[in-house]
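Below is a filled-in request sheet from our internal design queue. Each sheet records the structural input a requester submitted and the sequence that came back. We keep these sheets so that new team members can see what a complete request looks like end to end.

REQUESTER: design group, bay 2
PRIORITY: normal
MODE: inverse folding
CHAIN LENGTH: 240
BACKBONE (tokenized):
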């Protein structure tokens, strides 16, 4: 699944705000790959790369990828990015069409891995899974108490990209039901990252700004405790 300039911008913003766990073990639903994301965007980003020495190391790693990894250069470029974002200590992916290292589990069903993990990422994957309850429960169950869950998925537009889109209120209803802390919630377009919350006037946003009629919803949630997953009810978050 893809990390384009949109998802990259969201992840960098979260890192800049110190929201991403470090020395992290990562689980990803949908093995990530960079899509039309230039290497320069990674090694020239001052949030990710602090000095010239580190920049040269990152440039060298990225330059060596095509020669060493054959058909999977975009996936290994994403691993370089995750090292910079999370100081990644372990990476695990679930993906039917991933590399040989990915687990080909059916996300409509429960699965077991050697976890839990510090970070669990829904990498533009949940919209392709019929069993929405199970995919969000699996993310919950495989995240440590105190860990972070990161999602990006279509909200509006993206016709026939997947079988589901999410509404922004879903973030808060999910968080309310499971005692998650909403660390960051944004709408993404190819030109902008727009932080939103429950007070954002989305109707006015769509009326005035055409690009947001075809937007991704990206959000990061902290799992505060080890309680079992609870099914949300719509708009429960507005009641208390």
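RETURNED SEQUENCE:
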């Amino acid at each position: 699944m893809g990390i384009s300039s949109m998802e990259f911008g969201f992840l960098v913003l979260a890192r800049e705000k110190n929201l991403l766990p470090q020395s992290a073990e990562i689980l990803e639903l949908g093995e990530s790959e960079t899509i039309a994301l230039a290497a320069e965007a990674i090694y020239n980003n001052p949030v990710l790369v602090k000095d010239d020495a580190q920049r040269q190391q990152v440039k060298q790693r990225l330059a060596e990828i095509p020669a060493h990894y054959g058909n999977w250069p975009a996936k290994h470029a994403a691993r370089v990015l995750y090292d910079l974002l999370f100081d990644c200590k372990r990476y695990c992916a679930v993906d039917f069409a991933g590399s040989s290292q990915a687990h080909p589990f059916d996300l409509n069903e429960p699965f077991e891995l050697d976890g839990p993990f510090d970070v669990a990422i829904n990498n533009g994957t949940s919209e392709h899974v019929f069993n929405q309850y199970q995919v969000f429960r699996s993310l919950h169950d495989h995240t440590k108490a105190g860990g972070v869950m990161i999602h990006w998925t279509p909200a509006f537009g993206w016709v026939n990209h997947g079988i589901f889109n999410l509404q922004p209120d879903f973030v808060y209803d999910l968080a309310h039901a499971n005692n998650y802390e909403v660390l960051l919630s944004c709408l993404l377009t190819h030109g902008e990252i727009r932080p939103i919350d429950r007070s954002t006037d989305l109707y006015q946003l769509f009326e005035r700004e055409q690009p947001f009629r075809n937007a991704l919803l990206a959000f990061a949630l902290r799992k505060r405790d080890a309680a079992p997953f609870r099914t949300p009810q719509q708009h429960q978050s507005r009641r208390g």
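SHEET NOTES:
- DSSP finds seven helices and nine strands in the chain.
- The CA atoms of residues 18 and 164 lie 30 Å apart.
FILED BY: M.R.
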